[in-house]
Amino acid sequence: MALVARLVSLAVLLALWQGVSVYADVRTLPAPSAVFAFILREAQSGNLLFNVGVTLARVGVSFVIAMSLGVLLGIALGRSKLADRLLDTPLLMVLNTPALVVTVLAYVWLGLTETAAIVAVAINKLPNVAVIMREGARGLDPGLEEMARTYRLDRRTWIAHVLLPQLQPFMVAAARSGISLAWKIVLVVELLGRPNGVGFAINYYFTLFDVTAVIGYSVVFMSVMLAIDALILQPLDAHVRRWR
Amino acid sequence: MSAAGAESEPAAGAELSAAAAPLLTVRIDRKVYRRARTEPVEAVRDLAFSLRPAEITCLIGPSGAGKTTTLRILLGLDPDFEGAVTPDPNAVGIAMVFQDPRLLPWRTIEQNVRLGLPRARRGRDLDGVFESLGLTPWRGRFPGALSLGMQRRVALARALALEPRVLVLDEPFVSLDDNAAAGLRALVVETVAQRGTSILMVTHNVGEALEIADRLLLVSARPAHLLAAVPLDRPRGQRDRSFLEATRADLAGRFPGVIAQ
Fold this sequence. Notes:
The complex is a heterodimer.
Chain A: H1 2-23, H2 32-45, H3 47-79, H4 81-95, H5 99-110, H6 114-138, H7 142-150, H8 155-193, H9 198-207, H10 211-240
Helix pairs in contact in A: 2-10, 3-4, 3-6, 3-8, 3-9, 4-6, 5-6, 5-8, 6-8, 8-9, 8-10, 9-10
Chain B: H1 3-8, H2 13-17, E1 24-33, E2 41-51, E3 56-60, H3 67-74, E4 82-86, H4 89-92, E5 94-97, H5 109-115, H6 127-132, H7 148-161, E6 166-170, H8 178-195, E7 198-203, H9 206-212, E8 215-219, E9 226-231, H10 241-254
Parallel strand pairs in B: 3-7, 3-8, 5-6, 6-7
Antiparallel strand pairs in B: 1-2, 1-4, 8-9
Helix pairs in contact in B: 5-7
């Protein structure tokens, strides 16, 4: 039923797009069929797979870095008042720095390199993860903490069976919001300083004013990210909530 | 006269306990809570008692009298007090059943019980514990699937699996129906008889305490201090209704602030 509803809404969107494109200028809003023809062409040439692959790799690496550092930082902030007081202001500053500024500075300081690109994405995403995890670490059940101390649970047991299960829903939330953030930023980063990837391709076709290609690339990449959410992150979410 | 002596003769445990050496002696001269920007609150003043093997001790007092504070100190969770707990509570073997079950909802019943054990003993055979508490069919389920009464049983199983020498129960039978409460009470009494465990139970239910306790500790309102230690000499099986009513009336006359008519 849920799937049917999703498919119906998708079909309505496509029909709307098709309908509007009939009246609009072909150059500014191509019909869905034209976009799909472009996707097919680009896939056959191999460019599509290459650019999407490169971008996915960047999203993947920076996502892993931002998640692991952000989770650790968030737990530290949530558990230690001192850490929170010391780091709250810097965190807010980074959180409110535009992605563009972080990216430009990363390229200036680290050069136009792959490292700079990944660092830029990771730094953009890290504060969001930390803030979500901080909420999780603040909300630990005091009753369970007391139980853990009364039963003298060793550190490993406490982390694996008391701490992490309470943080898991927050980790999944951070991952889901984080991955969509990461791929949006990665395109900006690629546009500004990488010779490949979806962001680069979109910029290239923008200079040619090829709207069909721009929409084509974004449709493909959006689909990939939706698939990752539906096939990996949502099942993960269901798994960590299975005991409810 | 040693603790081991009492354990080897569980049937005579109740009689022996009065003479047996204490497992744990608690002496709290003063416990004051100090928080920034609020008046210090004195929770406990001059509260001392001992726990002996194969004895059920019930701690009775008004709400907010510092009973939980006393338990926390006894468990070694709060070192900030004047007085002493001897020997070190970490060395005695104390298990605790909290008022709310405090199970890990994301772990199965079996895992909950095993995780309460030290790592080295986690693989031990627990069939007997689960069987005696009627939990065998539920071992693979999550706590959320169980009623409150059953969850309390799991909490009790977790404590008993440790084979503690002292078992502390904080109002363990509150908000259970009469049958469930009676069933759990019987299990607790049986544990004392079989293993010579020393039990300290905090309760508001005077009737319940009179039924199962060997000794009542009556505690005043905050700051908590010991009003009286009342031994109940009649064996548990012979406490009939007239005994319970007469004892209750007598105590209510002597300690009107703690025990209601």
